Amino acid sequence: MSSSLRSILGPSKRPESTDEFVRQIHARVAVDGPVEDDQLLFHIETMVTDIREMLASSFGPCGMNKLVYGPAGDVYLTSDGKMIIKEIDILHPVAVSLKRLGQSMNKSCGDGTKTALLLACSLLKNALPLLRKNVHPTVIVRGYELAMVKAYEMLEYVSEDADEAMILSAVKSSAFGKGILEEQAEMLAKAMLQTVKEVDLQTGGSFLDLEKNVKVLKKLGSPDVLSFSGVILDETPARDDMPKYLQNPAVLLLRNEVKPDSGYVNPKHDVRIDNVETAFEFKNARKAAAVKFAEKIVKSGANLVFCEGEVDSHIEEVLAQKKVLVYKRLKMVDMDYIAAATGAQFLTIQDSVQDMNKALGYADEIKVVKKRHETFAFMEVNYQPVTTVLIHEPMKYGLGKIEEAADDALNNAALLIKNPSVVTGAGGTEYFLARSLRIYANTLAGKEQLAVIAFADAIEGLAKTLAKNIGMDITDAMIDLSAQQEEGIDARLDVTRHVVGNSPAVYDCATVKKTALVAATETAINILRVDEILRKR
Length: 537
Hints:
The protein is an alpha+beta fold and 537 residues long.
């Protein structure tokens, strides 16, 4: 990483004044005035080179981690492209454009961020020598557009309709790319495929909203992955004497706290607690009001209550006697999942019994169990598209990586269920596209040919980066790939540091590859069309 970017990304101090704050912002932007011609090329080269170097070492299953720290002392240990690019504290216009590319890949596919960013950076870097040789930007843009269309056609050509084994391989590959153990990647792949299939079945094959339909819960413990149809809560019931199992429970969701306030007990506020007798009377009145609240809940027909806030101890006591299971102080995200799973509506204790009854939701069963020294509630719902994935990881620092791997596996599983199309992974497809583009370049006349070759070099750079991170000699790896592919072998790189035929099979999701190709090319083209950076006054 160059000294210029290091100075921008260095630790920032708390600004002591408005002028100091403005100075820090200008330093992060790294643009003092209008930038054009050779200076513009220098800015582009500096940004794309440093961002590419930062991301390249984290590419693939053997990629290195980045330790990202913030001014508040927060630390992220990650090799995930979208996390790295998100945490970069830099406002340079070129870097911001690349960050938006990462954000768009994350929104559209949930994966392929590093692939798209590395390709975009390489396309821009490879275009700079042509620009310095006075090749006009529109010629390079035209060549890149031709190359993108041809590469997309070749991706369509090599894509295969995937069966179950191929889909599993592609999902496993996406998880394994985050640097977790192969056994963990396989467990995650199977669990996420099962999860997506169940959700897709419940939604009738319509749009999958993974944030709404799937909850991922991470815990410390021996490696394990469980896909559960319904909601898993890592919460303890309000009282130990409440039931641990309910079949076909009626679910009530309550907002705010569930306890009578002083205004309910003494609406006129005309009682002064100035002696012991008055204090006892007020306490008894408060208890009587709490009992009425509890009876109201029982009359509504609910026997499973989830509350956002605190619950009065007298209410808990009465509900426990009536065999009602209560959870309190729940996070709103968990309450939302419960509402989506059971169909229950949010209410307050002030609502009428009739309204409460109408707003009840239903589940198949709920079990309160101890699992690895923690208490969980497993609420099973078989008729709603809500699933929870419970992941146990033995090392605390590994929880972040396992979450990133689970996220990529989940998104790839969803894409492959909707469009079961795969291509050879581990650099095989990238090298094939680069070879094909060089052949295609020979059919072109004019300087667009140079741009197509630069495009091919950028795509081949992905395979070279993967080979380097695996620990292979880059030149030998590319020669072996070329030799085997020319013989018609579906060759790829392997973590054993050899070039092998695609056996055992390693596949990638074709949709992610195509999206990354188009998004990276469009981003590079948009930047190449810039002839001046201006500062807004």
